[in-house]
Amino acid sequence: MRLRTRVEAIDASAGAVRLSGGTTLPYDVLVIATGSRPMMPGIPGETLDGVFTLKNLSDAIRIKAYIRDRHCRRAVILGAGYIAMEMSESLRRIGLQTTVVYRGTLPAKKWDGEFSKLILEEITQHGVEFIPGMKPVAIEKGREGSLRLLTDGPVIETDLVLMGLGVTPEVELAKSAGCAIGGGTGAVQVDFTQETSREGIWSAGDCCEVFHRVSRRWTSIPLGDIANKQGRIAGINIGGRPARFEGVVGATSFKVFDLEVAACGLGEKEALESGFSPESVLVWGTSTARSMGGPRLGLKLVADRSTGRLLGAQAAGRGGAVRKIDVLSACLWNEADLDGLAYLDLAYAPPFGGAWDLIHIGAQELLRKIVSS
User: Fold this and answer.
1) Which residues are bridge partners to 78 per DSSP?
2) If DSSP codes are grouped into helix, strand and coil, which group holds residue 98?
3) Spelled out in words, what is the top-level CATH class assigned to the domain 7-32+170-238?
4) pLDDT tens string 148-186
5) For 301-343, how does the pLDDT look when each residue is reduced to its tens digit (9 = 90+)?
6) C-alpha span between 20 and 5 (Å, rounded)
């Protein structure tokens, strides 16, 4: 293992990598696992002291030390995805006045608008200020070590700025080695064994594509669990035993304060782009049997009108949301339809839901909606 060593270039024809310091390391097999890099807004001042991205443990340690050493009281987060939401909670819990600045109208735009409203309610109830429809223009130094965020609206005074704008695949080394890059994803193209277009070079993690079993397309989903599976499959194949990574259904989740949010599969827009005729329904219930007065839980189902096949699902609530999506992810994996979901055998007990689970209720309501239209 070579720590604190950077790969400067790959010479695929010679089977060697050039390391920082000028040394060369030969290889028989190469795995590119360069991950992703944080996206930046491309505005003046984004490299100033006190402006951070959060991508790894080192970033977290630097942010924590900066807050402690500078006695920070105020923080601004640019972006409103799940990393931004999780960071808003972390900053509020250590007492910082936290403001989220976002170009859109609601946080977590991947989710249904009703669920995004729940997320907004959750963060504002815990003291996070959310400013929608605002574009950052520049960051300037303020007085006494503070920062000034200039926007197309008011100027916001703060002690630190956190970029939560997502990530993009880190593919420069793969490009230099002649590996094909996906035009729509910007990620390294791989096959089901994780080998790239360049024989003898493999790739795994955020830098490479993954096959989506619902859309039947190769896409980019930078999540740690996917990276782990891809890495294992690559290693098994390199070791001489054939193995395939059969893809994903896009299952994801996060928690902000007391609210669980989860999703799998496709939304309506993605389903249309993938050639389906989507129909959806949003149903509300509780995470327990109604007689027990559990917290409110919402579930959205998306299905294909012509076949009744389940295409995607979303859930949000103060308990039970991730459990619903875990079940529906397995259903997506096996190409279940609404008829099957409507009477799916689930583990019933009043502390966990009603005799008719929200999954049953949603599937039956969506079936009625499709039949009656």
Assistant:
1) 101, 163
2) strand
3) alpha beta
4) 999 999 999 999 999 999 999 999 999 999 999 999 999
5) 999 999 999 999 999 999 999 999 999 999 999 999 999 999 9
6) 6
pLDDT at residue 288 in the model: 87
* Cα–Cα distance list, 142 to 96, 152, 240 (Å): 18, 18, 59
> Can 7-32+170-238 and 252-372 be said to share one CATH topology?
yes
Q: Which residues of 121-195 form beta strands (DSSP E)?
A: 129-131, 136-141, 147-151, 156-158, 160-163, 167-169
Report the distance separating Cα 68 and Cα 95, nearest Å.
12
pLDDT at site 293: 82
Domain boundaries, the chain: 7-32+170-238, 51-167, 252-372
pTM for this predicted structure: 0.93
Reference 318, options 345, 342, 346, 284; nearest CA is 284
CATH T-level topology, domain 252-372: FAD/NAD(P)-binding domain (3.50.50)
302-319 as b/e: b if 16+ CB within 10 A: bbbeeebbbbbbbbbbbb
CATH fold, domain 51-167, is: FAD/NAD(P)-binding domain (3.50.50)
- Cβ contacts of 252 within 8 Å, gap of 6 or more: 82, 221, 223, 262, 263, 264
Tell me which residue has tokens 């970033």.
59
- The set of residues, in sequence order, having a beta carbon less than 8 Å from that of 373 and lying 6+ positions away, is 279, 305
